[in-house]
Amino acid sequence: MQTTAAVLHSPDEQLSLETVSLDDPRNDEIVVRIEACGICQLDIEARKMLPTPSVLGHEGTGIVEQVGADVKDLVPGQRVIISYAWCGHCPRCRENKPYICDESWLINFSGTRPDGSTTMFLNDKPLSAAFFQQSSFAQHVITSERNAIAVDGDDLPPGLLAALPCGVLTGAGTVVNTLNIRSGKSLIVFGAGTVGLSAVMAGQIAGANPIIAVDIHENRLKLAESLGATHSLNARNTDIAKKVKKMFPTGVHYAIESSAQASSFNTAIECIENGGQIAITALPHPMENFAFKPFAFFTKAASIHAVSVGSAVASDFIPQMLRWHRDGRFPFDRLVTTYPFEDINRACADIISGKTIKAVLTM
């Protein structure tokens, strides 16, 4: 099968739309015609993580066109959201914790199927594809049945559904699953991007109060306030730790660091109360060290959580977010800007510049 994909030939080059070939689906795989695909910050970082030429994209939404012989729960014609990949057989997966699958790194970032075979070819040569076992910067993809969540109803367009599988999932899941924030507990969120704003919305649903949003962009802080933040602080012109200590002398209960800034992480340590908890959803430089002072953790007997996709079982949590949205409590659509597939490079540039919060490609 031939289709069109956005191919990366070098980490520093732009993506180019080219005709590629798909392998035949295995017995446990499906072929999905992609209708829309979100662009995540991870897609930007992964340009240097996979061998090139490669096809990225890990937030696909589309229609099932083919199913393998062993596929039981999906049929052609169904709309699905494709989330992160998991092996299904390791101890963590058997414990219903696929978000910390023992094979997570290999299965999501190797650029191949788990057995080393490829799903896409360019001029009859293998591509680094199978990113998150989908590579959804393409009009058709092969993915595992495990990755795909069937979507009931047609009330939301694909361009919104494709915003959910990673960034929104991570932000909301961090509040609900990782930290399990309860009503009346205080929360500070560093970074008002997709993850941070999703955490603000989920924090309001959980009853967190107050909710403090921290960013350097006034427009994002205003959006955070409209989505449930009770306070907003601009880190560009505010001593955040000093301000928070003045507002809450004993500190806040929970902090979420989504800005990927080492300075924000260190500030979060200063802001939490004794016994407080910090959740980190992104590192400043994923493959490098960064400095922080662990002494404060000991003096506060605090906890730190390294969060993987919001500690969420995607097949359960994505439908939950959709129910919140239908109830009017989770307006994630306000984060989304859609771009036609051929404008993928502009969409990526707008994410890097901060112009766009959540970019979604429509096919």
Number of strands: 17
Largest sheet: 7 strands, mixed
Cα-atom radius of gyration: 20 Å
- The level of helicity is 25-40%
Task: Return the CATH class of the largest domain.
Answer: Alpha Beta
Write the layout of secondary structure elements.
Elements (H helix, E strand, L loop, with lengths): L1 E6 L8 E7 L6 E11 L1 H5 L14 E8 L11 E4 L8 H4 L9 H6 L10 E3 L2 E2 L13 E5 L3 E3 L7 H4 L2 H15 L8 E4 L3 H13 L4 E5 L2 H9 L4 E4 L5 H8 L4 E6 L4 H10 E9 L14 H6 L2 E4 L7 H13 L9 E5 L3 H10 L4 E5 L1
Parallel strand pairs: 10-11, 10-13, 11-12, 13-14, 14-15, 16-17
Antiparallel strand pairs: 1-2, 2-6, 3-4, 3-8, 3-17, 4-5, 5-9, 6-7
Helix pairs in contact: 5-6, 5-11, 8-9
